Amino acid sequence: MTGFLTLLRKEILRFWKVAVQTVAAPVLTTMLYLLVFSQALASHVQVFPGVPYVAFLIPGLVMMSVLQNAFANASSSLVQSKVTGNLVFVLLPPLSTLEIFGAYVLAAVVRGLMVGAGVFAVTAWLSPPQLAAPGWILVFAVLGSAILGTMGLIAGIWSEKFDQVAMFQNFLIMPATFLAGVFYSVHSLPPFWQAVSHFNPFFYMVDGFRYGFFGQSDVAPVLSLAIVSATLVLVGGIALRMLHTGWRIRH
Question: Which residues contact 222 (CB under 8 A, 6 or more apart)?
């Protein structure tokens, strides 16, 4: 386990050394989202019965921050190592594919959860938090950040430069996150767009996470958990296969 723990420590220290950029800045950005959208949409968006819009919005923003930062951590680290040429120091030691995968993804989970906790801490004063089912909150936060950390690893393996990672994030991760019900309940959408939303795995991450706060959700949390778990298995299998073959890393 020495190699795995060393790589994990290196990945955590990498983002913690610049915590103002990697942790504090996303918290500030999310606060701006909260202030703008809570004022602009509070009287126009239908949410769960008895749940004020600000209270509804906070869990969605927390989860959005968790997902986006987990992705950014794994993808930026791997591409940075490629560009600077120090990826060889990860590949030369006798680390197994599973150890490399675990270290990158677990570090992404740590950063995602830290940012999410920061967002929750600074937004709680706007609306006293409701914790109907804390276990569901933790489960979906960990699984969601693990999925996005794995997707970040896939993006980092595929990309040869930062522009390609930015394209992956801007054209896939950000739209999927914004259309996952962060700012609205899908029940407020027309039937066609409700159906489309159910094909977005990010929707189930956000919806299941929000269930932990209010005990209400657009779909059953067990169904969300099943879909999120299946998504993690799928993207995890892809990432492990890419690492095992060494595509765009060793060859």
Answer: none
